[in-house]
Amino acid sequence: xxxxxxxxxxxxxxxxxxxxxxxxxxxxxxxxxxxxxxxxxxxxxxxxxxxxxxxxxxxxxxxxxxxxxxxxxxxxxxxxxxxxxxxxxxxxxxxxxxxxxxxxxxxxxxxxxxxxxxxxxxxxxxxxxxxxxxxxxxxxxxxxxxxxxxxxxxxxxxxxxxxxxxxxxxxxxxxxxxxxxxxxxxxxxxxxxxxxxxxxxxxxxxxxxxxxxxxxxxxxxxxxxxxxxxxxxxxxxxxxxxxxxxxxxxxxxxxxxxxxxxxxxxxxxxxxxxxxxxxxxxxxxxxxxxxxxxxxxxxxxxxxxxxxxxxxxxxxxxxxxxxxxxxxxxxxxxxxxxxxxxxxxxxxxxxxxxxxxxxxxxxxxxxxxxxxxxxxxxxxxxxxxxxxxxxxxxxxxxxxxxxxxxxxxxxxxxxxxxxxxxxxxxxxxxxxxxxxxxxxxxxxxxxxxxxxxxxxxxxxxxxxxxxxxxxxxxxxxxxxxxxxxxxxxxxxxxxxxxxxxxxxxxxxxxxxx
Length: 513
What we know:
Layout: E1 2-11, E2 17-26, E3 31-36, H1 42-50, E4 59-64, E5 72-75, H2 81-85, H3 88-93, H4 96-100, H5 103-113, H6 131-144, E6 149-153, H7 161-173, E7 178-181, H8 185-191, E8 194-201, E9 206-212, H9 216-261, H10 267-292, E10 320-331, E11 334-345, E12 349-353, H11 360-371, E13 379-382, H12 396-400, H13 406-418, H14 435-448, E14 453-457, H15 468-476, E15 481-485, H16 489-494, E16 498-503, E17 506-510
Parallel strand pairs: 3-7, 3-8, 5-6, 6-7, 12-15, 12-16, 13-14, 14-15
Antiparallel strand pairs: 1-2, 1-4, 8-9, 10-11, 16-17
């Protein structure tokens, strides 16, 4: 059994408590989804459970971790630049399980992950593999270690739709417990049977952990229903309490008036009023005690809140936004696709899909080069690499309020607060923010610019499963044009009005995924 008891994790730098008094147990076959907003400590928790040395430089902890005898298989969220530069075989040789594996074990790991045996010995750099190949290879290497538990940090990042479906089947096939972080709601819905939700309440100052043995969709529905039920009960009891207090104040005011006006020549009446006031005060104390037992308004960490101005972001129906005829789509000297034709009329919301490596991001960059200079459009581009669009050394407030005028700064701070930025995070350099925080920042810059054409490369990939529905609703209501690349099945279904698949022979219309 993989068991955690009364675990508390604190950031060394600002003494922020990320996790407090967390206890849980994982059994064979458990697929526990670790969810929560950006910056709530999910990756830190996984690193600590994998190896306390991974967090020793920036976090302290107390509590009881699982037995060190249990073998952990840890999949980090990203590979380092050094690892990406390694040939595949050299990368594999860094894993003890690979060096000790016999051909039968390698073949079994390859079958489990859908990889050909010769990929382990490939001489290409790791960076040239597709996102799906890299994830499958790393999972195969983890399996060769024969772990007692898998700890997976965003295994669904950068996976195409086919590989996401494979990952679901892979997780369901495992007998060892799995604790994983993912922003892909489809993966959560189809695989998780235990939810561990890390929240930060009271303006992100108080951590809370919620654990429930449930599927993800059931958890979200139950959480919402419980919140509504408790809110209704709390409001009802508050109304009843205020009615009692109104009556109490009337009685007390009446007795006080009688005490103030009674004649000094009536000591007996004065004694009666004094006893009556004692009874009234006793009633007030009883009401105070009752209030302590009343149902409290529930607390939860609200999702982000933002919106586009429907007047500034609207685009006329029928306006030609893009007419692209591209004989060849290339990156470097490599041909990705030929004979691309794309005609976009406003307002449309287009989703471009296709396997990893087919050139979707390259196509979106090509479209950006055509649309960003246009004077008749207010086009915004959100690439996968946020460093391409954000001034790394400037703070979020400086990026959103470049003039420094008080009104502009106030509006920027208000919007950042709606995106759940803490006050100190608003002043941090953008380079030090998490991927999710930078995604929020780019999103806000598009809102402030009044953009009416959005070019979005994986727009939901860094938003938590609880924030992503808000982003999807905002984009589904966007009155302008959206051209996006996405592997998010829920996004494609709820936001996009047209789906196009990029193939080596061009773009083709497809139905719902």
